[in-house]
Q: What sequence folds into this?
């Protein structure tokens, strides 16, 4: 199972999308929240990791950015309860097994 997340954030407090040592990033914050709810591994047996349609740089805001991960969909309210107010999941939707946010971006 693959899930598509639609997210928004105020990038002022982030060092961009991608995980970086000793930096607060969107990817790190979302993956931490998802691992708290779903555990450390995805349905593919690999560590739970997000794929994004397009990475952003430090300070860049997003509204409607798409990411995906290999696990079940989670109620956005549940995820948002673990996130700071500058990052929110707008939707969490189950997709077909081959969906990939990066490769299926339009």
A:
């Amino acid at each position: 199972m693959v899930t598509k997340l639609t997210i928004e954030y105020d990038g002022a407090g982030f060092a961009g999308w991608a995980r970086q040592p000793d930096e607060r990033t969107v990817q790190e914050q979302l993956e931490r929240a998802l691992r708290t709810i779903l555990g450390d591994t995805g349905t593919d047996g690999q560590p739970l990791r997000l794929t994004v349609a397009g990475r952003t740089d430090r300070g860049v805001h997003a509204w409607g950015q798409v990411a995906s991960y290999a696990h079940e969909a989670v109620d956005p309210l549940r995820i948002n309860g673990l996130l700071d107010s500058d990052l929110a999941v707008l939707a969490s939707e189950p997709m077909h097994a081959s969906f990939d946010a990066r490769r299926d971006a339009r």
Remarks:
- The chain is about 15% helix and 25% strand.
- The chain has one domain: 2-95.
- Residues 2-95 form a domain with the Alpha-Beta Plaits fold (CATH 3.30.70.580).
- The chain has a mean pLDDT of 94.
